[in-house]
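DATA SHEET
Item: assembly model
Revision: 1
Owner: S.N.
Input lines:
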Amino acid sequence: MGPRELQAELKKSFGDLINIVQEEPDLVAEIPASEVLNIAGILKNDRRFNFDFLVSLTAVDRRDHLEVVYVLRSLKERHQLILKVKIDAAWPEVPSVASVWPAANWDEREVYDLFGIRFTGHPNLKRILLPDDWEGHPLRKDYPVDKRPEKVF
Amino acid sequence: MITTQEFHVNLGPQHPSTHGVLKLNLVLDGEYIVDCEPVLGQLHRGMEKMAEGMHYGQFIPLTDRLDYLASAANNLAYVLAVEKLMGVEAPERAKYIRVIITELQRIASHLVAIGTWGLDLGAWTVMLYTFRDREMVLDLFEMYCGARLTLNCFRVGGTTYDFPPGFIEKLKEFLDVFPRRVDDYEALLTRNPIWLSRTKDVGVISAEDAVAYGLTGPNLRASGVNWDIRRVYPYEIYDRVEFDVPLGSRGDAFDRYMVRIQEMRQSCRIIKQALEQLPPGEVMLDLPTISLPDKRQFPNNFPAVVRHFHLLVQGYAPQEKEIYLGVENPKGELGFYIVSDGSAYPYRLKIRAPSFINLQILPKVLKGALLADVVCILASLDPVLGEVDR
Amino acid sequence: MALGLKDIGLAMELIRGIGVTVRHFFQPTVTIHYPKQRREPYPRFRGLVRWDKEKCAACVLCAHYCPVKAIQIVTGEGKEGQKEVLYYQIDAARCMYCGLCSEICPVGALSHSPYYELAVYERQDAVYAQERLAGEPPIIRYR
Ligand code: SF4
Ligand code: SF4
């Protein structure tokens, strides 16, 4: 499916739940945090979408809120979609999609590690790149670049 | 009464067969592995945070340090992502040069993969031969851009250098001898009974698992999934050259080895065709917004001087956009997700590192495997820790 | 235990592999004896960065652009009121030989030299400043 048809198909299936925020050069859509698991399941299993491959899962700190970003791909239909979820910076929590795409497991741990976003229902949510007792979440915009840990490893 | 208990073994981080600072916490029941937990992050340098404080052009040498065995391929992925963000395209000749250099890089990377894998399993000779031939590739790189490992040779909008005189002859010489060298490795390994018994039916990954766990590159293709970004979303000139996508059938370590061997032959084929088609012309885009002016006009051409300083101090700012671009690296799909807020610095730059995601399947594959096979399975996935930890 | 056809096949494969090794005995050597023989780098080789005081225009672009901030410059005013470099240093231990500085220097004052044996005993010796930035670096050679 080309991006045009994909966009039309998404609108048809999800209506107001999905909000297209960018069309060129990549199709970017936004969904509410409460619907993540639901929509992810449909996107993966529905014949029309068939997003069987999670390319990447990451987050962006937009200062007033956080965004979790899913880059999805269908190996069969060869289309690609960037899905975004807006979440509150004060209570950063979003359902884990590791049950839908097992590939999300380590990516979610990385996002938890570097952004402090908690993924509810994740099988093993702990830090992956930084040591377990690290303070703060470095990829947040309020974390200074030149901050050094007090403890030297 | 004999009591049994599970046994914990730490493999790494300072272990030659983990190919870097990877630590595996293994739980053993006798010789069999019950559980495995990879511990990452010893090489974490915070590249994504560093990128947020750098111009788009300044980050290119740091991408060398992701998958340091395939630095040119990383450069290409990053440069293409920024070009997509800026909406520009490199000149034709630059595209060919980029493809030739990245395919050489793929050969070099696979040579290390196979050589060290052989070394891990006791086939010492293969390592000597592959490293000898990799040296020829590195010599070519040194001739082309002056560096052997961390090339830093591509720029947004083209490449830094054109081929120097004598390069193409030397490259042709390499292309002539290399297929015979691959025959040599095959003579040493492909039907060697020891190699076969160490790799056949070891670390089997089914096609469904490979897709579900997000495997890419030779690891995915060895499971029989026909997915090569060079074929599916052709970038640069890959739609103008003919090449096959080697596939495995069972998804075991041997298939991953075979895919890599055949990919080296295909890379040779691609380079040969690219050399034939290589057009004359410029290697750098002449676009005032991104490319540096010709230094020979300095200091008489004052506007050029101003542009030079403006580009380097202020940088160039893409529009407010977000893009994802993945390219086929030797290890798998290296992708860059870049969010731009309209300033000269990336607002967020996420590196989708293939080795990081490929390693994820390790605990699943290792479960029930023999301790002696851990080294083989790990080497067959071919992770590079510079990329895993970023 | 009699040898079956299969065992003979396996043995043949091993012999084929040994054949490759034996063939390599009669090929020219590709290695060099490093401290006694040295390989000439290619003309574009990116070795230790060298700085030409005469050419430098004191624009500080290199220090600004270097991704790892390996260059430090102190500028001041010369006798005729022109901008002048008072102090210039490159920390070779920080430098990653990326070639960006020599690429962007507008007057070509920076260049890569072919020197690559840069190991020193003290970390301080890896910092090249002022006069030590031109000519051949004091290389501690293996004897
Ligand atoms: S960029 Fe060149 S001219 Fe400018 S300060 Fe550096 S060395 Fe001197
Ligand atoms: S070569 Fe690169 S790292 Fe070294 S001083 Fe120049 S810009 Fe800095």
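QC remark: The longest helix of chain A spans residues 3-14.
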